[in-house]
Amino acid sequence: MHTMKTSDTPFGKVKNILIVRQHHQLGDMLCALPMFAAIRKKFPHAHVTLIASPVSYEVLNSKANPYINQVINYNKQSVHSLLDFFNQLFSRKYDVGIVPSTASISRTSHYINFISGAKVRVGAESVENKINKSANLLTVKKKFFWDEQKLHQTERNLDVVRLIGCDLSLEEKKNVRIFLDKKEESYAERYFENNFPDKSKPVFAFHAGAAKVQNRWNKDNFVKLILMLHKKYNPYIVFTSGLIDGEINSYIRHKLKNHSVDSEIMYKIQIRKVASILRRVTLYLSNDTGPMHVAAYVNARVIGLFGPTKGYEWGPINPQGTFIQSDTENIDDIPSDTVYNFINNYLNKQ
């Protein structure tokens, strides 16, 4: 293991930091938020540049983001977009470059970090027993064994930058957020006024889809659960939706309509505006997927459903977040009645 000593680089003179996380998974990116906060804490005056995929670019590309100064979109769909990417990348001379390989090891990320010219390059030499074949491009590295410790992804990300002295206290971790601007907050206020005019009624939101089929709780389970919740709480019901979730949401809404239960869909709304809406809902129940993490980092009242993935590793850990884990690796082995009782207990504690 090679960890950075104070003598390796004059911390006080670090002007530019590069973080390369160009994976498409939004949840992976958001689990790195505490890591970004720790870097900002250690280097409060440095210019921090983040490389992100088009999928996760929008959620962090905001002047309201206190951790990141610049987000570069790694868009490789055309020669023009790639040229624009490299022009932005080479516009600065980086003192430190970080590749947080916690969920997967990307050669592309390491090559980008290397060609950026970063003097100190930080990352994983191996993860569990998976060797990083690009580890020779790193100057500060360590072999990590996270699974045996059952560490959450946020802690795994922090472990990478702990190599260069970046860390957060427990209280600081609780305060890590997606910060929203006034326009985004105003949008959510108008959305509630237009779609949920009766302020005495609770607003229950759901995300029934997920990119990975094995992470999707059965859509009939959602129907059964929502009907039970409707009978007890008579809430407004709204679904968050990505491009791949249309069929699932249409099916559930049709089934609910047959029972005279109305619902709304948040579709084609910019993700940061969705975040502002979710921050205000009474309850958000979601499969293990990107919007669940978005809700967690605006400290929404979010409950995650977990089957093959582990809640202790990927679950919402915000003060108001929690999760339900299947006793097996099959998410459909979580009964609707179990989720209903869990929600009742959860709301009674709020």
| Biggest sheet layout | 7 strands, mixed
Q: Report how far apart the termini are.
A: 45 Å
- What do we call the CATH topology of the largest domain? Rossmann fold
**Contiguous helical run count:** 14
Unreliable residue runs: 4-10
Oligomeric nature of the chains:
single chain
Q: Give me the CATH superfamily of the largest domain.
A: Glycogen Phosphorylase B
Number of strands: 13
Beta strand %: 15-25%
CATH architecture verdict of the largest domain: 3-Layer(aba) Sandwich
Task: Calculate the mean pLDDT score and round it.
Answer: 93
H and E string: EHHEHEHEHEEEHHHEHEHEHEHEHEH
Q: Please state the structural category.
A: alpha/beta
How does this model look, in words?
With 350 residues, the chain is an alpha/beta fold. It has two domains: 6-174, 3-Layer(aba) Sandwich (Rossmann fold), CATH 3.40.50.2000; 182-349, 3-Layer(aba) Sandwich (Rossmann fold). Helix content is 37%, strand content 17%. The chain is built from 14 helices and 13 strands. It has helices spanning 26-30, 33-42, 54-60, 79-89, 107-115, 153-162, 170-174, 182-195, 219-233, 246-257, 271-278, 290-296, 311-314, 336-349; strands spanning 16-21, 47-52, 70-73, 96-98, 120-127, 130-131, 140-144, 203-207, 236-240, 264-266, 283-287, 302-306, 322-325. The longest helix is centred in the middle third of the chain and has 15 residues, at 219-233. The radius of gyration is 21 Å and the shape is globular. 44% of the residues are buried.
